[in-house]
Design brief:
single chain, Immunoglobulin-like, 6-stranded mixed sheet, 5-stranded antiparallel sheet, 3 helices, 50% strand, globular, disordered N terminus
Length: 262
Amino acid sequence: MTPLYTRAMICAALFAFSISASAQCDPEGFDFGEAGFGLTPDGLTTFFADGTQGEDYEQIMYLLTPTNATEFDPTLPDLVIDSIEIVAVNLLSYVELDTIPLDDAGLSVSCNNSGLCADECTYLAGSQGCAVLFGVPSMGGQFFISIDLLIWSTVFGFPLSAPQSFSGLELTISSSDGVEEQRLDFDGLGEIFPVPAQSELIVQLNAPCELALLDGVGRTVATHSNAVGRTSFDVSGLPAGVYVVRARDGEKVATRRVIVRH
């Protein structure tokens, strides 16, 4: 077990956000049951609430911090975690794939870790905390939410960190300037199967479109420039998780969430 004084030193050294008292949350306000690690909304069974440009928005996020790095990501080394720090939250536009700082979108993040760390956006291993995404959105559209983290551990008495991120999270803000008119209805455009996909994802289109497959943080992993009819993506080599199929016809865009599971 990592000594408490080491955890305290890490907690005291980190300051990720300027915390606002205008949005608060109860760290114990969600029951994770017997899980050792969790995030909600998780982008799979729970989702970010839609918002409206120019109107108050608030979404509470709950985090149950694991005690071992492999609980967060099986590919990480088998190390005892000291804490997890939220270092940045950004939006990424579905359409242009531009990264948008929260401040530019009229949004902020406020964290609560029950006072266990001086930096309220740092959560001790094995503890439960929360954060609130809030504000008055200044722009409309469909966005990926990127929550960038540092996982802190101690090796031979020295603190070490590894960057990680939460992916597969989405936010839709209805616009006052016609963004909704730029959206296509994927149900009318075609269909996608099988979902979940294991090795191949098939898109059956009724009209020509530019197709792209995006990962959970908005990176393009595959494209078809002039797709029509039956088009497929090879997903056999992709990590399991949440992806987005984006169909674009000029300025109009349709998106559909899909899951890859091997």
